[in-house]
């Protein structure tokens, strides 16, 4: 129960809590752990051995004369061998044994030559690396860890480094009492990381199977990057005996290449480039194919060349993706869900680019770059998964709403069908009593009436009867037009006679109508047409009736021939149709306002609709040809007789 005026508590999804917890994790080991690092704390000198055949004695003079380096050693992808020299003064190794840790795990061959500082005695050799079959180190750890006994004179150390991967060497000197808590913290951190990675991967797989979304499948595929992280962190070689080191050696290369391709796929699906920017999607997918082919370079021992090719392709494709992000966000008016879906892969892509440039030696190496990249992968995966589920839910709700609207529309269609059926039935039932009234009225006229008032009453009854007959004819015609197949009883008819019959049904009270042929008085020559006389009589009478309703004078009808068509122009003398209502005049059940039509001749809004449908059923049309302040002109176009159409 909440107190009045208090806000309800914010309920975050579970994935968001996991994201917050992940971001809240410390980014560095406890402050008490302060190892000495090669480069920043221990200056070194370096020489290049292109042939890889030098010995400690042959390179030692050059190393002793070299300029000291104070940054972490990194040379990118090269087949050259490098020799490094540094010294550990007595104060660095006094007070007990020290542990020398070597990173990263993907160095092929690392050889340490060490001897007491100032001694000319033999070198003590220690080896490590992916291609070395011996023990990883003196202490069971996922990275090589060598024990340096206490020495009052210090140590002189030479390091020989060679690799088919990026040539990079991180070396740290630890005191055992500092290393153990730092390693414990790091193990706990990576346990949490890989546990969260496994959970998010499982979640993505289940959701991809259930929702069948390409975006979720791309999220599932990018989870192979966690295996790459496990390789870089040395877990594969540490946990899998015998073959683990060789497996880690090749997996690191293969997954480094494939992870970039899968990230491009994820980026394309996150922004829906397949629908939004097809050309950008095709470009990204083509890049994925090129990078996928580069995987074949690993067994061919061309990994370094493949990385350089991939770097150029990936860099240009990343620029395209950044431009696509800006375009999609702008089109979506920077909607939050759209921005977040694009921002996740974008951050991951930027972080991977910095990691790639660092491995290539284009920028100085910083360990934080890899930490950001590893974090960005899992944060991106959780973010995209959560947003994808949210988007799926929104789409599901939209589909439900669409189905409800479709059902409502179907109900409305059924109701309108039943209404038309009912109107057709009623109209049909009206025909008999109306015919009786018309026949009785005709009999009354034959009896002869001398009273003018009586004659006027008979005229009103006649016009009302004709009007009801016209309404019933429209309802019956509408029902026929609504049928799946409209059958027309075409006959050879005289067009002028048909127009005259249609006009006689209207009986314009107080007005006279005029009929012309090609603008002149009609001749006695027949104008044959191939029509359904009953249906066309309804169509023509509807338009003439409209001209009477909305005009101040009698309508003018002109029949003419234009090419293979008869044209019947029906003009009224009304005020015209407002421009905003022109598009509606041929719609069903659309009527003019009460102020626009005569009070005694209101309809139901079927006339023009029925007339146009009848004209089109005959292969012609009905259009509003003219509309101005002097009146309107509706134009019928009807085909000629089949045998006359070529004349």
TrEMBL record:
Would you say which domain of life the source belongs to?
Answer: Bacteria
Transmembrane stretches, start-end: 190-211, 223-241, 247-267, 279-300, 312-330, 339-363, 369-390
Q: What is its EC number?
A: 2.7.13.3
- Top enzyme class, one word, equals transferase
Transferase as a keyword? yes
Domain Histidine kinase spans what residues?
425-642
Identify a single GO molecular function assigned to this protein.
Answer: kinase activity
Swiss-Prot/TrEMBL keywords: Kinase, Membrane, Phosphoprotein, Signal, Transferase, Transmembrane, Transmembrane helix, Two-component regulatory system
User: Cell division as a keyword?
Assistant: no
- SUPFAM superfamilies under this entry? ATPase domain of HSP90 chaperone/DNA topoisomerase II/histidine kinase (SSF55874), Homodimeric domain of signal transducing histidine kinase (SSF47384)
Signal peptide location in the record? 1-33
Q: Could you tell me what reaction this enzyme catalyses? A: ATP + protein L-histidine = ADP + protein N-phospho-L-histidine
Q: What is this protein called?
A: histidine kinase
Lineage at the top is: Bacteria, Pseudomonadati, Pseudomonadota, Gammaproteobacteria, Oceanospirillales
